[in-house]
């Protein structure tokens, strides 16, 4: 069942849990994530990140995501993750995505507000929800890093978050509090006070980016502090890679589809583990 992000975040608020958002770069990961959600009877968000457009163009993978969501036995939101250009936002809207993340967080505050306002106006006129980001993670969605090295330099300022939300009218806010995209080389140190204060100042459901690799205990703390959406991809993708590699090393098959299927099953199991944690089962 294809639904809006707002519907899922309201469920999450009622149950004091978080909804998992999983980047789906192709049919294998779409099957894995929706299959995991259906087995657990939990809602889920599948997403296309702009940085992944070089792997499968949104014009190809987007319709498959929409069709899979409509046919799913659980509520599924189809989301544009880290949309950095208006062109990509409009392409997602034309395809029927039910949620948009506009990411202008690397721009000066005033420009972030201006761009986000324009996206909110367009999306809300079409019945589509909007997520934006304030503060930034030390690594970008593609794994590159920039800016100062001290983690607190990246954190979202709660008072600035209040002003940003009031100025833009967004439906969910991604906050920076110590997580990072990609793989962790050491245990992340998370500042849950940032989350709590941002929740108090904005009243909005908050989003954790860089959710892969965080400990189960820290997921629970983040959810208790006000996180209602957790973005997850890197470690699920790595599980798929490991499974495909292991199969090919057995030399029992020469078919690519066997490796893809093994990867899909492994990603499904990893997604199930994540969804169970986020739903606090």
Task: List its traits.
8-stranded parallel barrel; 10 helices; globular; 8 strands; alpha/beta; 281 residues; TIM Barrel; 15% strand; 49% helix
Summarize the structure.
The protein is an alpha/beta fold and 281 residues long. The chain is 49% helix and 15% strand. The protein is built from ten helices and eight strands.
Write up what this structure looks like.
The protein has helices spanning 5-15, 27-40, 58-71, 86-95, 109-125, 158-168, 192-202, 216-225, 234-250, 256-278; strands at residues 19-23, 44-49, 76-83, 99-102, 129-134, 172-175, 206-208, 227-232. The chain is globular and about 60 Å long. 49% of the residues lie in helices and 15% in strands. Helix 8 (216-225) links the parallel strand 7 (206-208) and strand 8 (227-232). With 281 residues, the protein is of the alpha/beta class. Helix 2 crosses helix 10 and helix 9 runs antiparallel to helix 10. The two termini are 22 Å apart.
Topology:
Layout: H1 5-15, E1 19-23, H2 27-40, E2 44-49, H3 58-71, E3 76-83, H4 86-95, E4 99-102, H5 109-125, E5 129-134, H6 158-168, E6 172-175, H7 192-202, E7 206-208, H8 216-225, E8 227-232, H9 234-250, H10 256-278
Please give the alpha-carbon distance between the first and last residues: 22 Å
Reading the helices and strands in chain order gives HEHEHEHEHEHEHEHEHH
Question: Numbering strands along the chain, what is their spatial order in the largest sheet?
Answer: 1-2-3-4-5-6-7-8
Which word captures the global form? globular
**So what's the oligomer here?**
single chain
What's the architecture, going by CATH? Alpha-Beta Barrel
Count, helices: 10
Class inferred from helices and paired strands = alpha/beta
**Helicity range:** 40-55%
Our count of domains comes out at 1
**Total beta strand runs:** 8
State the CATH superfamily name: Aldolase class I
User: Any idea what the radius of gyration is?
Assistant: 18 Å
**CATH T-level fold name:** TIM Barrel
Largest sheet: 8 strands, parallel, barrel
**The CATH C-level class name:** Alpha Beta
Low-confidence stretches are: 140-145
Average pLDDT, rounded to a whole number, is 92
Strand content: 5-15%
